[in-house]
Fold:
Amino acid sequence: MATKVAVIQFPGTNCEFDVAEVVSSLGGEPQIVFHDDSSLHGADAVIIAGGFAHGDYLRPGAIARFSPVMEPIRSFANDGGPVVGICNGFQVLTEARLLPGALQKNAHLKFKCQMVDLRVDSTNSVLTSEAELGQVVRMPINHFEGNYTCSSETLAELQSEDRVVLRYVDNPNGSIDDIAGICNEGRNVVGLMPHPERASHELLGSNDGLVLMQSVLAAAGLAVPV
Structure:
């Protein structure tokens, strides 16, 4: 049976088809699910794609968290299902309180569109299980509000519980503790600002994102080639 991945689409999402293409290339079955849908249609994993949900009015992800699709996503996550939010998807997950903290404007108030190096600092998550601890992967960022912030108490929890899964090697946006990606306590919900789906082929400048996408599919039950 095919491994189904619900790729969530909000008004303003612009990376859903990139995600779907990579999922399909790795053997999964992507399904675009619009934000007003109240069902995930039997999905084995959920990926909230990047873009500008609802135009990023108010705050990025602040309006999207009220969409009907967020209720089945919340239930799916609470049941242990793998949920990953990429860029704007990360912002949506924090606004929906499925992940702690928030994303604020980049340091120096500049939009960042560049390749960055990331270090895998935990392999105990649905996004990094197929990677190696300490592995450095290269992929693009494309954001204005990707500067992760949280309280000192939350940061201490993230650090002590091994929940910072990715860190920037050279911090591009001012994120606290160089954080590029975090997971929840159950390790099945992960948010990251860089775009692994845009680092899926050497012609794109890097295929380092494949190991992260493979991890999501493995968490959904798809056998990963040795």
